[in-house]
Amino acid sequence: MFLKEAVRGHYSRAEMYDELCEVLQKQVERAALHNLNVESIGIAVPGGVVPHNGHFNGAVGGVPFEAGEFVSQTITDALVNRCGMPLLQRVFPVRDAESLMQRIHLDNDARCAARWLITEQGPRWADFVCLFAGTGVGSGLVFDRRVSYGAKFRAGEVGHVDLNMGDELMLGKMALQRRKCSCGTKGYHFESLVGLGGLGHLAMALDHGIQKDIERAYVSDPQRAADLRAELGSEEVSGMILLEVLRRPGLLDLDEFPRSEEDLDEHLQRLMELYGQLFCVGITAILDALDLPYVGLCGTIPEYLHGNQHFQRSFRQHLAGNVMGTIVDPLFGNMREWGWRGAALLPRDPGYYIRRFPGSTRQPFTASERRSATPSSAREQAVHGEERLNEQHSDT
Ligand SMILES: [Zn+2]
């Protein structure tokens, strides 16, 4: 929720760091109180990350960081300020602020989610893509049980692949217009087609009138109207309202809706059939090009649409019809659950570690060094994951 608000500009950059570091401070104090040690802090963020210095590379807009921002340094400074070095030295195995910064790890959120799936899904999932779809669209690519970073740490930035070079994209008999993407390009990027704004745009193109009626009925509730503030009218908010209504149809006050319930159902069903098809276009391109037999889906959109039978039927039908030679059974999950576990595993992933500390002779943390302030179930999961990550790298 906090991130969503930050993305929508409801939090300034300074407020975001304040919130984040307040949470971290509480964890540090809690660890000190229980005489526990914390080895590292793992952070998953949307957009591009340069692992070797913890910089955010600013590949996309709409995230609460600036291009080139030294995130791990800012967090270190704030923690030293808030907690004081003596307390930090007690909780972390560090001497000074510099060595604390070495224990703050930052990576792209979709890559973190993919890292967790390597461990959660086991050896069968050797090659796969973990796709995130919400306001933005991104992915983590895994080959031979290793998270791929690419030459410029941008592997998996599938949201900015152009799916149509022409001036018009036809979906059935409907023409979709070019949309401005978070990268600044106006066109048919995968993200601008299937992100929240893309869903809103599709609904408007399908039936502008009924979509407006849905939105008016939705904000007849004063609390919802207040929540949306001045943003009503953007395609992104249209997309978010649709997800809410699709998940809980009873949410819409039908007394405020000037059409029949059948009209509403028909519109939503048609919308989901088309959206399932559109969602599939970009995914099949990735699966086919890279010969991947598995896909994990997370982020606001899959999380809301997981239970929608019309979306599921259309998506799976097009997936079966378009992916060459493989039957792909998509796995739906939760970004928050996958992402934080993958971030917690960062210092234990040799593939990340050699990029964070190029040329270092230090070894990644091992199970025997394990000392963590995380709750035991989470710690067990992270440790279990670490052992699997080490297993897969034991041949290197
Ligand atoms: Zn783009």
From TrEMBL:
Pfam family, one: ROK
Compositional bias annotation for Basic and acidic residues: 381-396
Gene3D superfamilies in alphabetical order: 3.30.420.40
Region feature Disordered, mapped onto this chain: 362-396
CDD domains: ASKHA_ATPase_ROK
Signal peptide: none
InterPro entries: ATPase_NBD, ROK
Domain of life: Bacteria
Family of this protein: Belongs to the ROK (NagC/XylR) family.
Protein's name in the database: ROK family protein
Species of provenance: Streptomyces coeruleofuscus
Species classification: Bacteria, Bacillati, Actinomycetota, Actinomycetes, Kitasatosporales
